[in-house]
Amino acid sequence: MDHAIIELGRVHLSPEVISALKDGRVRVHIRDGRRYLSEAPTLYDVILVNLPEPFTAQLNRFYTQEFFRLAASRLDKGGILSFSASAPETALGPIQAGYLKVLYDSAASVFREIVLFPAHTARFFCSSAEGVLTTDPNVLLQRLRERNLQPLYVQDYYMVWDLSPERQQSFMTMVEGAEEQDVNSDLNPRAYFANLRLWGFQYSPEAPRLLGALKARNVWIVLGALCLFGAAAGLRMSTLRVRVLSSVAVFGLTGISLEVLLVFSFQVLFGYVYAKLGLLLTLFMVGLALGSLTMTRYPRDEASVLRTLLLAQAALGFFCLTLIPVVTYLHSRPEASLQHLLHRETLSLMSLAAGLLGGAHFPLANRLLLAQREQVGRMAGALYAFDLLGSALGSLLVGFLLIPVVGVVQSLVVLALVNGTAVLILMSGMRQGETSAPET
User: CA 124, CA 42: separation in Å to the nearest integer?
Assistant: First the structure.
C-alpha cells in the first residue's frame, strides 16, 4: 500500500528480484489488495496471497470467510486461490494444529476443494471446482516438466518427500483432529486470536492454556456473573460517592472501548486506518470538549444533575447497541462503504457522538461529588483516577479479550450490559431519595 517500498526495492534489491517488475506483463497497483479485488474488471486463473500471517486486524482481513467469498467470485472456472501459514516440518502441536484448522475451516466454508501441503510453511490451495487440485507429487512433477518450469529452490526429491501420501495424511490428521470449531470472519477474528495463542506459547507454556480458556461461552458467564455481583453490591451501597465513582469508571471503560472498536471496524471495512486515525481521535476529543462544555452549565440543581447523569449513562449503553446495525450494515455493503463519502465518514460521526456522551458525563459527576463539601483536590483526583482506571481496563478488555474472542457485535452488547448495570446502581440511589446533604 506504500509506493516507497517498491522504490526502495528498486534501489536495494538484487537485479534478479527486481527484473520481474520490468516484465511487460506485470501491472503494479499501489492500493489495498482486497479493495482492488472487489473492483477488479476481470476474472483470474490464480490469486496468490503473499502476506504475513493474521496477527493484526488489517492482515486478518485476508484470511476471513468474507475475503474467501470475494476471491472465489473473482476466480475463473477452475481458478485457484493460494495462501500460506507457518508450520513445523514434522509434528504439529495442538496449538499450531488449531491455528491451521481455523484457516482450513474458514476456506472450506467457501471453496469446494482444498489441498493443504505440509512443510515448514503450510501451503493452502483452494478451488471452487472439483478435480482441479491434486495431492500426487508425481503429477505435479510431470506438470513442471510439461511447462518447462525450472524452479530454483524446489527440487524433484524435495517434492516427492514433502508431499508423500504418508506425510500428507499424517499432517491432515493432526489438523482435522484439533479442537477448534471456529470460522474466521471480519467482525469475529478467530484466526487473529489463534495466532495470538501461538505467539504466547513461545514466551510461556501457560499463556496458551489461559487464552484457550477464553471461549465465548466462558467470557459471557464470567462477565454476566461480574455484572450481577456489581449490581447487587451497588444496590447495597450507602453512599452517593461510591455510586458516582463506579459510574465514572464505567464511562471511562466504555469511552476507550468504543474508540478501539471504531478504529478496528474502520480498518476491517476500508483496509487502512493510519491515515484516518488522527481524524477519528480528533473528533472523539472534540466530542469530549463539547459535551463537557455543555454540562458545566446545565442542569443547575443537584436532583437534575443526578437524573441527567443517569440519562447519560443509559444513553451511552443505548449508543453501544445502536452501533451494531451501523457496523453490520456497512460490512454487508462493501461497495457502498468504498464509494460513498457518507458511508466512509459514518464511523467518524460515531466517534464524535461517543466523545460527546463521554464528555457530558465527567462534569456531571464532578458537580455531584463536589457538592458533598469534600476536599476539592482529593475528590477531583479520585474522579480522574477512576476514569483512568476504567479506560485502562477497557483498552485491555476490548483489545485483548473481547474482539478476538467474541467479536465486534458481541463486544458492543457487553458494553451495553455493563452500562445497564451502572444505570441500576445509580437508580438505586434515586429511589433511596439521596439529597445534597453532606455525607458522613
Answer: 23
pLDDT at 155: 80
- For residue 285, how many C-alpha atoms fall within 13 Å in the half-sphere facing its CB? 6
How far are the Cα atoms of 276, 295, 296, 307 from residue 304, in angstroms, in the given order? 38, 11, 13, 5
Among the listed residues 26, 27, 419, the one whose alpha carbon sits nearest the alpha carbon of residue 231:
419
Cell representation of residue 179: 479442537
- Residue 184 has φ and ψ, to the nearest 5°, of -75, 130
Residue type, 424: L
Task: Give pLDDT, residue 133.
Answer: 93
List the alpha helices (DSSP H) in 147-297.
156-162, 165-176, 190-201, 206-212, 216-235, 240-270, 274-295
Grid cell locating 20: 520481474
The residue with cell 483432529 is 177
May I ask the CATH class of domain 216-431? Answer: mainly alpha
Instruction: Say how many Å lie between the first and final Cα of the chain, rounded.
Output: 62
Edge-first strand listing for the sheet containing 44-48 = 44-48, 75-86, 121-127, 113-117
The pLDDT value recorded for residue 207 is 65
The three-class DSSP label of residue 155 is coil
Question: At 160, is the secondary structure helix, strand, or coil?
Answer: helix
Residue spans per domain, the chain: 31-201, 216-431
CATH code for the structural domain at 31-201: 3.40.50.150
Is 22 exposed, middle or buried (CB count within 10 Å of its CB: 0-12, 13-18, 19+)?
A: exposed
Mean pLDDT by 10 residues, the chain (440 residues): 85 86 87 86 93 87 94 94 87 86 94 90 92 90 89 81 88 87 89 82 69 69 76 68 86 90 86 79 89 78 81 91 90 67 77 87 81 69 88 88 87 91 78 46
299 Rama class: left (phi>0) / alpha (psi -120 to 50) / beta: beta
DSSP 3-state of 121: strand
